[in-house]
Amino acid sequence: xxxxxxxxxxxxxxxxxxxxxxxxxxxxxxxxxxxxxxxxxxxxxxxxxxxxxxxxxxxxxxxxxxxxxxxxxxxxxxxxxxxxxxxxxxxxxxxxxxxxxxxxxxxxxxxxxxxxxxxxxxxxxxxxxxxxxxxxxxxxxxxxxxxxxxxxxxxxxxxxxxxxxxxxxxxxxxxxxxxxxxxxxxxxxxxxxxxxxxxxxxxxxxxxxxxxxxxxxxxxxxxxxxxxxxxxxxxxxxxxxxxxxxxxxxxxxxxxxxxxxxxxxxxxxxxxxxxxxxxxxxxxxxxxxxxxxxxxxxxxxxxxxxxxxxxxxxxxxxxxxxxxxxxxxxxxxxxxxxxxxxxxxxxxxxxxxxxxxxxxxxxxxxxxx
Length: 369
What we know:
By secondary structure, the chain is of the alpha/beta class. It has helices at 6-13, 41-57, 80-89, 102-112, 140-154, 168-183, 202-210, 222-233, 250-256, 277-290, 299-314, 321-325; strands at residues 24-31, 65-72, 95-98, 118-120, 133-135, 159-165, 187-194, 215-219, 242-245, 264-268, 342-345, 348-350, 354-359, 362-368. The strands form 3 sheets. It has a 7-stranded mixed β-sheet with strand order 7-6-8-9-10-13-14, sandwiched between helices. A 5-stranded parallel β-sheet has the order 2-1-3-4-5. A two-stranded antiparallel ribbon has the order 11-12.
């Protein structure tokens, strides 16, 4: 699964090939290979490769074997738009699987939105309606409303403070959370937003202490989530307030460390510890394919596995990928998913949402929300 450099893309662009001349269906797998969200890459690449192997063992996608081309979708990657534009114009890719932040999604859509099918796989703020884009991850509303309600009934926090990276997903999520917190009998008393790559959270921690906060809503990603929670754990705050996140996976939890994860809750559609038939079968296939040194499974990685199988179901029986979109409309799509998700048509994807609590270096699922 080669990563593409701008030089290689430029060379390819000089030799465009008609789509129907290729026997393979080329998929650009857009994942962050560095930066704040780089921790998502190993499992995301591995899960996509497992799905590729499974699809190619059967009939491929639309009767064609599928090939993955890795594109660096880190937020600080300056050439994402140029890379994808050249690939699309040269006819070198037929679809995109995107597992990256919403900020990067907007950049990609401005460059190539509507030209080829795009499956956007991670959790996000909701509301994506660009033609030809399928956002199949959890949305903030479906994660936050039941999770905040459950914590309100069982833990009774009254004063909440929201901390996030400074981009669209945290801002939209926190606007929604304000209402959900009020419904649960609490109040959002403050918000703080930090740039990607922040390592000094002293001002945020001071605000939490001065605000007599009971609960912290965390919308930090990747390494930033690790840095914040490590700093939080070194204070006495963990004995006074719980934390809720929708975007801390098992890799981040390992980086945070068990000593810094007291009263840390996570609401999302997938945990490696899920004791469901679908997940147990998925984990068996994953470890049989990659062995004991396989990257740690988590919600971000699983989403690319799901995205590949969604694409396979979307293109079933179609030799020309965009042709199937013209007649899709509100048609439901059933696809292989470790979290038993289901596309109901009309831009609506449903996945179970679970609430888990960090225990040591793993998440223990408490309930299905």
